[in-house]
Amino acid sequence: MPEGPSIVILRELVEALHLEEQQIIAVGGNTKIDKERMLHQKVTAFRSWGKHFLICFEGFALRIHLMMFGSYRINERKESAARLNLSFENAELNFYTCALKYIEGDINESYDWSADIMSDQWDPKKALKKIKTKPEALICDILLDQQIFSGLGNIIKNEVLYRVGIQPLSVVQAIPIAKLKLLITQASQYSFDFLKWKKAYVLKKHWLVNTKKLCPLRHPLEKGHLGKTKRRTFFCPICQKLYV
Questions:
Q1: Would you say 37 and 82 are in contact if contact means Cβ atoms under 8 Å apart?
Q2: Element spanning 56, H or E
Q3: Rounded CA gap, 167 and 172, in Å?
């Protein structure tokens, strides 16, 4: 599943086409939503919130979620059928294996931008307050809670927990406040590192534990599908402390 930084890359690529205020001149794809609604509409903005890519129009927006296996092509097409095709005068956007939904009204009323770890409006203090309301939750589940850390996915979860030395099955109320604050800071920092490395095509070279067998200190890693989310998790039982 594409994580927040990957959606930021998509947004930046599309913004570079300068399609704002341009009309959509043709729509296609096998989506079941009323895609004709977008025909001849002017795009007012392209935005991202966590794992959501948003195409904004006057009075509504289209939310695109690439799910586990979604993809996109800009000014080119895959052999497989597109879920949605949007054509402009000098550009074309194609989305595959994704979930589409219309968001009605002012997009700012539907999204909490302060929860987006890559937004200028990201609020770490607000994130800490939200975490404190779930004292019995496991930290591996908290990090994947999109209402707290919008855009944070499984790779970032694994890497950040190793960075700060917390085992994934640690309980929120047992983790010192200083550690939680460090976790929040690193969640945002790693997301921007992720963005930089992915743009340079070196992301995997910087993984410390994700998909690895040994941690950087050569300790054997443990692997499991942990927490309520049952997402694949890699951690070092020596370098990372269990708080229970």
A1: no
A2: strand 52-57
A3: 11
Q: Write phi, then psi, for 13 (nearest 5 degrees).
A: -65, -40
Secondary structure (3-state) at 34: coil
Read off the tokens for 163: 């960075």
Task: Give the predicted TM-score (pTM) of the model.
Answer: 0.89
Q: In what order do the strands lie in the sheet with 52-57?
A: 45-49, 52-57, 60-65, 99-104
pLDDT in tens, 127-144: 999 999 999 999 999 999
In sequence order, what are the residues at sequence separation of 6 or more whose Cβ sits closer than 8 angstroms to the Cβ of residue 241?
Answer: 165, 166, 167, 170
The Cβ of residue 152 has, within 10 Å, a number of other Cβ atoms equal to: 28
On whether the CB atoms of residues 123 and 184 are closer than 8 A, the answer is: no
Distance between CA atoms of residues 208 and 112, nearest Å? 31
